[in-house]
Amino acid sequence: MRTHGEFRVSVTKDYLVFSSAHFITFAGHRCEALHGHNYRVGVTLEGALDEQSWYVLDFSAVKKMMKQLCDEIDHKVLLPLDNPKVGVVQRDGTIHVDYAGTPRYVFPAGDCALLPIPNTTVEMLAQHLTRRLLASLSQIQIAHLTAIEMEVEENFGQSAFYRELLG
Ligand SMILES: [Zn+2]
């Protein structure tokens, strides 16, 4: 059956979660105290059917990639590398974090996930996870995909979506 319509597949599994610590900065001179969330992740992929197999993407491949991305940041302190007010410096196996030039935290390096984002909001985490997933997806055939949408929930009923058009 030939079709001109588009399909959408979605993966939101119980194990696509990460429990991590973070703090975000606000406009002006406000910065949250360190705290944690049990984050949940969901992804939707849009596109034409794979011509050989009649699916958009192999669910097992997507689930595996998403699980791997969650594991990368699970049980970590999430730190933004691109925040002009937050300094993140690695020294002798520890990460020194300052806010507006004032020392604030020191963590073991292995407990931190240093992320190339300006703030660890769910919006930025969703965009970051989208980029990481695209890097994983680039190893398989994804020319037929047209969009990817990532959801990151930090609390029940409180989530952000990032949607990126492909191609
Ligand atoms: Zn928070």
Question: Can you characterise this structure?
Answer:
- This protein is an alpha+beta fold.
- The chain is elongated and about 55 Å long.
- The model has no long low-confidence stretch (mean pLDDT 94).
- It has helices at residues 59-73, 122-137; strands at 7-11, 17-22, 35-47, 77-80, 86-91, 94-99, 102-108, 112-115, 145-155, 158-165.
- Bound molecules: zinc ion.
- The site of zinc ion has 4 residues, from strand 3.
Features:
167 residues; alpha+beta; five-stranded antiparallel β-sheet; three-stranded antiparallel β-sheet; binds zinc ion
Q: List how many beta strands DSSP finds.
A: 10
In what range is the share of β-strand residues?
A: 35-45%
Q: Biggest sheet: strands, sense, closure?
A: 5 strands, antiparallel
- Mean pLDDT, to the nearest integer, reads 94
Number of helices: 2
Termini gap:
24 Å
C-alpha Rg (nearest Å): 18 Å
The low-confidence parts are: none
Apparent shape: elongated
Structural class: alpha+beta
Order of helices and strands: EEEHEEEEEHEE
Hetero ligands: zinc ion
Helix content range of the residues, please? 10-25%
Write the layout of secondary structure elements.
Blueprint: E1 7-11, E2 17-22, E3 35-47, H1 59-73, E4 77-80, E5 86-91, E6 94-99, E7 102-108, E8 112-115, H2 122-137, E9 145-155, E10 158-165
Parallel strand pairs: 4-8
Antiparallel strand pairs: 1-3, 2-3, 3-9, 5-6, 6-7, 9-10
Helix pairs in contact: 1-2
This protein binds zinc ion.
Zinc ion binds near residues 22 and 35.
